[in-house]
Design a protein that fits this description.
Blueprint: E1 4-10, E2 17-22, E3 28-30, E4 43-44, E5 50-54, E6 59-64, E7 70-75, E8 83-84, E9 90-95, E10 98-103, E11 108-113, E12 118-122, E13 128-134, E14 140-146, E15 153-154, E16 164-168, E17 174-180, E18 185-191, E19 197-199, E20 208-213, E21 219-228, E22 231-240, E23 247-252, E24 259-261, E25 267-272, E26 280-287, E27 295-308, E28 318-323, E29 328-333, E30 337-338, E31 343-346, E32 349-356, H1 362-370, E33 382-388, E34 391-397, E35 409-422, E36 425-435, H2 439-443
InterPro entries: 6-blade_b-propeller_TolB-like (IPR011042), WD40 (IPR011659)
Family: Belongs to the TolB family.
Length: 450
């Protein structure tokens, strides 16, 4: 999908739907038919093929812009954050304290529980999640977790109340949030490596809403409410993530407006045209670098949300591994080197493949591997059932007491579509070992080659 803005809108007589404005020629496209609501917020997948949103009755929809398919995947609370994995395959959200990871290709989901969790989102590595949740004292903190929900790390030491609108920076090094509530909303930026945070100056009324990261993670845009001649307006402002570089780029006639950056970070889209009604009716674009006046691009009855298409991801430096004997292929980091035909290692991880001869079902095979007498995964590993290439499979993640010499070894076991004969013996299962940080990345591209 080329450069475009998706937005939620309704005419005076029609219900809310998701629309698309194409930047190149200014054409408008209606993407749904009576499926949206005033609370529907569209979220682009990183490859810009999909748009997800929470529609009427809290239904989570995923729209395929390439094929036109529309999938209904769950029912959750309005305004729940939807977050796409970097490879655009998994959609993550929180439902009843369960952090859900939904595979949109296979239409299956996994989840882990953290009481009070909210705002779950992916790190750009695709190997971990960031979310907010209460600590043991009841104070809301930021946590980092692997996708299995094991290996959780508390990143902050907050004692100043709830955190709202948590958003990770595109480079994965920082996060922002607003606090303490709606009447007073201040923006804080946190260094995720150190847990240290600082507050941005914000607008004159301390009502700073809808903060959004620039694509290069250097700036934050937001809507700052002010009262001018007994009329609420909102300033479209930016500031450095370190603060001290506040700029006002435009003024919206609304109490507050979402803001969204263009893929190259040169422009910001926002809503205006509220007038006497509370809901916006216009989309405007302002240039962040030059002193050009803002430009109105859309006029509609009611508009509640918008999202500019993200920068297209750069192809990662991977190389294809293919092993005909084990009937498998997948991509691995190209700086890893071959140790044996079945094993590759690099400065940050490894993988090794083998096969398992067993007539038992997948659950028994996974349990036998996870709780091997030598305890290669520690005393209490976690087994996560999954599906790979339409075949029953499981992940095995180590517990905290795994021997250090195992190098965070984790495993993926997948049942072959048909037994594979290796040196005259038939094997029913493939097993892939890898370090914890790469096991999911490797498995996402795994294919049986015949």
């Amino acid at each position: 999908m080329e450069d475009a803005i998706v937005f939620t809108a309704a005419s005076e007589s029609a219900k809310y739907d998701i629309w698309l404005y194409r930047i190149a020629d200014g054409r408008l496209f209606r993407l749904t038919e009576n499926l949206g609501d005033a609370y529907s917020i569209p979220y682009w997948s990183p490859d810009t093929r999909y748009v997800s949103f929470i529609g009427r009755n809290g239904i989570v929809f995923v729209l395929d812009l390439q094929d036109g398919d529309l999938a209904r995947i769950d029912q959750i609370e309005p305004y729940t954050l939807l977050s796409w994995s970097p490879d655009s395959r998994y959609l993550t959200y929180v439902k009843d304290s369960r952090v859900v990871i939904y595979d949109i290709h296979l239409h299956v989901g996994t989840a882990f529980v953290h009481e009070g969790a909210s705002d779950a989102q992916w790190f750009p590595s695709g190997e971990a999640l960031l979310y907010a949740a209460p600590d043991e004292a009841g104070n809301v903190q930021l946590f980092r977790s692997n996708v299995a929900g094991t290996d959780r790390v508390q990143l902050t030491q907050n004692n100043e109340g709830p955190l709202h609108n948590v958003r990770i920076s595109p480079n994965g090094q920082f996060a922002l949030y607003t606090s303490p509530g709606a009447s007073i909303s201040l923006i804080t930026v946190v260094n995720l490596a150190t847990g240290e945070g600082h507050r941005l100056e914000g607008g004159p009324q301390a009502k700073n809403y809808f903060p959004a990261w620039s694509p290069d993670s250097s700036l934050i845009s937001y809507s700052a409410t002010d009262l001018v001649q007994n009329q609420y307006v909102s300033y479209i402002q930016t500031d450095s993530r370190n603060g001290g570089q506040q700029r006002t780029l435009a003024v919206s006639s609304c109490f507050a407006t979402p803001v969204s950056w263009s893929p190259d970070g040169s422009r910001i889209a926002y809503l205006s045209g509220c007038g006497e009604q509370e809901t916006a009716s216009q989309i405007w674009i302002v240039n962040t670098a030059a002193s050009f006046p803002p430009v109105k691009i859309v006029d509609a009855g009611r508009i509640t949300a918008l999202a500019w298409s993200p920068p297209r991801p750069v192809a990662p430096p991977y190389r294809l591994y293919r092993n005909a004997a084990y009937n498998v292929s997948f991509y691995y980091p190209k700086n890893w080197v071959q140790v044996t035909v079945e094993r590759y290692e690099g400065p940050d991880g490894f993988f090794q493949i083998s096969a398992i001869m067993s007539e038992a079902d997948i659950h028994e095979v996974c349990r036998s591997e996870a709780f091997h007498a030598l305890r290669p995964y520690g005393s209490n590993p976690k087994i996560i059932p999954t599906v790979i290439q339409f075949q029953a499979a499981c992940y095995i993640f180590p517990s905290a007491d795994q021997p250090p010499e195992m190098g965070t070894q984790s495993a993926l076991i997948v049942k072959y579509p048909e037994p594979v004969v290796i040196q005259g013996s038939a094997y029913s299962y493939l097993i892939l070992w890898a370090d914890r940080e790469h096991i999911l990345q490797l498995s996402r591209t795994l294919e049986f080659i015949r």
